[in-house]
Write a structure and sequence with these properties.
Elements lengths: L1 E5 L4 H14 L4 E5 L11 E2 L15 H8 L5 H14 L8 H15 L4 H18 L10
Parallel strand pairs: 1-2, 1-3
Helix pairs in contact: 1-2, 1-5, 3-4, 3-5, 4-5
Length: 143
């Protein structure tokens, strides 16, 4: 499967891509495009982009919508979804010490002068640790 999202990936897009690769398609490929790019001609599933089915809906972030769409019912993923939403939409959530620390880590990734593929690679590792912290089991797979 191929997926497409906006460049300068941040927490919701990184976590969504992590969940896709970890639980849906281990060989998924990701394209990163400009915010205003027309992706209608691409053979890829858009996520966290304007008008995408996999995007923010009904107060949920893209990561949470993905969990629902693909019927991923793991309680650790649900807890992780709460944290991803709190980072991605901070004005809707209480900011705990845990969320503040993760926000800083994801902001560093977003602001680093590195390619999106590298942001995703580093973010994948953060997401894997977050999943374990939420009660999930570790899987030794590289992004």
């Amino acid at each position: 499967m191929r997926f497409v999202t906006r460049s300068k990936v941040h927490v919701d897009r990184i976590a969504t891509a992590w969940a896709i690769r970890r639980f849906i398609d281990p060989s998924a490929r990701f394209l990163f495009v400009d915010r205003n790019a027309d992706v209608s001609g691409l053979d890829a599933i858009p996520f966290d982009m304007r008008g995408a089915e996999l995007g923010h809906h009904a107060g949920r972030c893209t990561f949470e919508v993905l969990l629902e769409s693909y019927e991923l019912r793991d309680p650790a993923l649900r807890r992780m979804g709460d944290i991803v939403r709190a980072i991605d939409v901070p004005f809707d959530s209480d900011v705990t010490e845990e969320v503040a620390a993760l926000t800083a880590a994801f902001n560093e990734l977003r602001d680093a002068e590195i390619a999106d593929e590298e942001r995703f690679r580093r973010g994948y590792l953060v997401c894997e640790e977050l999943y374990v912290m939420c009660g999930g089991s570790r899987k030794e797979v590289q992004p």
